[in-house]
Structures are given as structure tokens and as C-alpha cells.
Design goal:
By secondary structure, the chain is of the alpha+beta class. It is 13% helix and 20% strand. It has a three-stranded antiparallel sheet with strand order 3-4-5. A two-stranded antiparallel ribbon has the order 1-2. A hairpin with a 4-residue loop joins strand 4 and strand 5. The radius of gyration is 13 Å and the shape is globular.
Length: 107
């Protein structure tokens, strides 16, 4: 299950509020502490799961913006739960501006 709105946004069209920016640990904690939609077992997706919602035919953001799916998703980088296997101080992110995956510094 995916949350429809980016953290910090709400409303039917996810057009109310302000996007919550977080470090990697902050994003992990935010997901783990969420009680969105009456569930309390939220987590960040791993890198493969996060890449699975990239919409290759779209850019700025590269995600399905159908109001029933992920409306008003900002073209930002989103943390995954996947740390780098080689660089211990990095974690994987997906940039929904063009849908690319890269390593980010989880400060």
C-alpha cells in the first residue's frame, strides 16, 4: 500500500500543507511513526519498490499524477530504506524530477 500524498501534504488532491523535508533517519522515523489511514505499520519503501512507481513517460514529476493515484507529487528526491552496500554513509534515493536513482548522503 502506498500513501497517496507526500508527507506533509493532505486533501483529496494533496494540495494542502507543506512537504516535510527530512534526513534519511528522519524519513525512516517519520514513516515508522505514521498512523496514516488508520495503519501504524508504515515504512519507507526499499529502492526497488520506490523505482516501481516511477512513470517513465512523465517528467517533473516522473510519477503517475492521476488524482486517484499520486496527485501533486513534487519533483523532489525521495529516500528509500535501502542503504548503500558499498558506501556506509549513503542511502538510495529516487529523484521524481526525471525518475533516476542515485545515492544520497543521509545527513
Amino acid at each position: 500500500m502506498w500513501a497517496k500524498c507526500t508527507s506533509g501534504l493532505s486533501g483529496i488532491l494533496c494540495d494542502q500543507g507543506t512537504v516535510t523535508l527530512a534526513t534519511w533517519q528522519g524519513a525512516l522515523d517519520l514513516a515508522a511513526g505514521s498512523v496514516h489511514a488508520g495503519y501504524n505499520d508504515w515504512r519507507l519503501p526499499n529502492i526497488k519498490e520506490l523505482q516501481s512507481i516511477v512513470e517513465q513517460r512523465c517528467a517533473g514529476p516522473a510519477i503517475n499524477e492521476d488524482p486517484a493515484v499520486f496527485p501533486n507529487t513534487p519533483a523532489l528526491r525521495f529516500w528509500s530504506s535501502s542503504p548503500s552496500a558499498i558506501l556506509s554513509n549513503f542511502a538510495w534515493i529516487v529523484g521524481f524530477n526525471v525518475g533516476d536513482a542515485n545515492l544520497g548522503v543521509p545527513r
